[in-house]
């Protein structure tokens, strides 16, 4: 009835610890990619992307011109489009690790110097041209760490 | 200006290959967790959860009673709530791997035998009681594999 994926179930005593926003953003900055979540035509959309944290505390991702989020952020104008951004590091065997979710407004990066700088640190994953970047200002930052007791 | 996360940028020639839905679901079934995405109060929500694929081709996840998705699926009735479900296996160093996104309607599992069966294979990640399950019927299945050329 159920497909066995060959992995042990996450068993044993364990607990989840809520993270404060500083620790949550630190963890998010310790990895290089996450998943951008937004709504398009009332449907939930999710795409894996790589990211950098910038000094302002914002999260910057690069996307290609045809990406749905590009047109969404352009159409929206101020105050921008509300998005969620998730990153995690969860062990596939034990399911221990952490997950962080940031919710905030996303805006296109328009400054050409900024775009050029992000282009050097955010390499596209595929051969598609990624000449656009989106900046997410964290409004709500939540996170959880899953540990063995 | 940019926080260096110590990881090399994903460089070198690479390409992305679109996956057909059979291969995409096979990959999703080869891992034990993913991320459920839905809209609540017009805001995008995302939560990591573990999953099983069942023979009908549906994805079943277990959630706890207080989870926002539980109340959303209960309120919605037929045809259910549209959700996205994402799973991936992306190398943190090279950014090679795959990502699969399923979009479809989510319904609460109400059959007690079914609930009991899922309870044995979907162990909760934390000490929260997970006595509810949600079934997602894949409507749109997309996936991409990122390979070195």
Description:
Two copies of one chain form a homodimer. The first copy, chain A, has 149 residues and is an alpha+beta fold. Chain A has a single domain (31-148), classed as Electron Transport, Fmn-binding Protein, Chain A (Pnp Oxidase, Chain A, Roll). Chain A has three helices and seven strands; from the N terminus they run βαβββαββαβ. Chain A has helices at residues 21-29, 68-76, 112-121, and strands at 14-18, 33-40, 43-53, 59-63, 81-90, 97-108, 132-148. A six-stranded antiparallel β-barrel of chain A has the order 2-3-4-7-6-5. The longest helix of chain A has 10 residues, at 112-121. Chain A is globular, with a radius of gyration of 17 Å. The two termini of chain A are 32 Å apart. Chains A and B meet through strand 1, strand 2, strand 3, strand 5 and strand 6 of A and strand 1, strand 2, strand 3, strand 5 and strand 6 of B.
